[in-house]
Amino acid sequence: MAFQILLNFILAFVWMFLKTSYSPASFFVGYLLGLLIIYMFRRFFHTRFYLLRVVAVLNLLYIFLRELLLSNIAVLKVILRPKLNIRPAIFALPTELKEDWEITVLANLITLTPGTLVIDVSPDNKILYVHAMDVSDIDEAIQGIKNTFEKAIMEVSR
Amino acid sequence: MKTNDVILQTVTKVTLFIIILFSIHLFFAGHYYPGGGFIGGLMTSGAIVLLLLAFDIKTVKSILPIDYIKLTAIGLLFAIGTGAGALLFDMPFLTHAYTYVNMPLLGKTSLHTAVLFDTGVYLVVIGVTMTIIQTIGESE
Predict the structure, then answer these.
(1) Interface list for B 95-114 with A (CB within 8 A)
(2) Subcellular location, in the record's words (chain A) (predicted)?
(3) Does the residue B88 lie in any domain?
(4) For A13, which residue in chain B has the nearest alpha carbon?
(5) CA angle at residue B39 from B38 to B43, to 5 degrees?
(6) Domain tally, chain B
(7) For a Cys-Cys bond, which of A10, A77, A122, B23 suits A127, CB 3.0-4.6 Å?
(8) B119 vs B126: CA distance, rounded Å
(9) Which domains does chain A have, with CATH numbers?
(10) What is the pLDDT of residue A138?
(11) pLDDT tens figures, A78-93
(12) How many CB atoms lie within 10 A of CB A12?
């Protein structure tokens, strides 16, 4: 991945030198041409074509912003309700993520979306303990987190 | 004895892209400077030949699954298409038109139908060269 980005930058600079025009526009044109060539030879590399990973990162960002908006509205509804009939719970969330940064990102995503909060991570990095404000079905909550955040993070690191 | 080609292969991995970028530069330079479809196509196929030298025919086929005979046909269609396109506007065969367009990135650019004709030349040159080299290379 890093090699592909580095190669793309080198190609953009080579293009600028060939054109002897050192403007941002010619850098961009060279970058696009380099991207096209790297795409043509994408089977040449051991890793995936790096633009796919960039798309996965953007997708993760979109999912985060969407969840942030939706669950803020959910919390607002709970606050404005006259009676407080919520059911708080702490549950264990088994995770398949391995790398340190993946677990950190997952925990931060869970915490930043209101309604859920990561309390602790088990010593072997396999289980996250999550406090939820209002859970009617624990399995549903686990599946919800797994299907959105964990899947999107795996898509980035794959 | 099978020798280890790791240096050749690693150098190929970087130089290949620079050669192809240079061939694209030559291709687009054709209108105002030395260059054009023929030399650009030859240099692109030169890059693929470098790939063939560093790896074997099977690997190159899996990296670039291109049918070069079809590529030649597509190039010829490009050339005939741009020539025949002039007939639609009541002009003689192979009359070319051009216009100046302000592109978002490239600035003031002249779009010329001769570039499409050159694309045809480019594809035919790659197709023919690679067909010749691969046919000779595959026969025992």
Answers:
(1) 105-107
(2) Cell membrane
(3) yes
(4) B18
(5) 120
(6) 1
(7) A122
(8) 11
(9) 1-44 (no CATH), 50-157 (3.30.70)
(10) 65
(11) 888 888 778 888 888 8
(12) 20
